[in-house]
Amino acid sequence: xxxxxxxxxxxxxxxxxxxxxLGAQLSKEYAGRTPxxxxxxxxxxxxxxxxxxVITVPVEMDFMAVSSYGGTTKxxxxxxxxxxxxxxxxxxxxxxxxxxxxxxxxxxxxxxxxQGRNAASVNVVTLFDxxxxxxxxxxxxxxxxxxxxxxxxxxxxxxxxxxxxxxxxGVLKPEIYTK
Length: 179
Ligand SMILES: O=P(O)(O)OC[C@H]1O[C@H](OP(=O)(O)OP(=O)(O)O)[C@H](O)[C@@H]1O
Ligand SMILES: [Mg+2]
What we know:
- This is Hypoxanthine phosphoribosyltransferase.
- This protein is of the alpha/beta class.
- The protein is built from 4 helices and 9 strands.
- The chain starts with a strand and ends with a helix.
- 1-O-pyrophosphono-5-O-phosphono-alpha-D-ribofuranose (PRP) binds next to strand 5 and helix 3.
């Protein structure tokens, strides 16, 4: 698996350090409130698990599964809901946890959906932001790392469902997805 990686972009230590900073920032922001923290599966599951451990305010959690990439490196543009929330978001302070914002299509769909269900507030924390990929104008309230224009894998990010379990984020060798 490591042999398919061209370059490690962000190390395990750098990721963990940045998550501690985000946790401290979010704990301040949500002091006195109990946000509903929503994990966007599958990609965000590792970030979600590490992030909630360093948030010190009480949180409720729920999970949604959406997919638009399938086995490719380009968004299909169609966001498919595979699993919806179990919890009502009405009147709740919602914090969406994403692994990456690339085209922005997944999040713009989700934000509109949650606002339509009358959440009191909808904020986004993303570990990675790839501004060069944007198809819609969208920014997260909290961002871990701004990353360059390359297809990345690791720390939850997959190519054709592989590589999510790498503890760092790396650039996949192009010959892997062009072969
Ligand atoms: O900004 P976008 O271009 O919409 O890309 C970002 C989304 O794409 C990935 O999910 P994917 O659809 O690959 O599903 P997965 O999380 O199961 O890998 C990633 O986890 C984000 O949810
Ligand atoms: Mg994916």
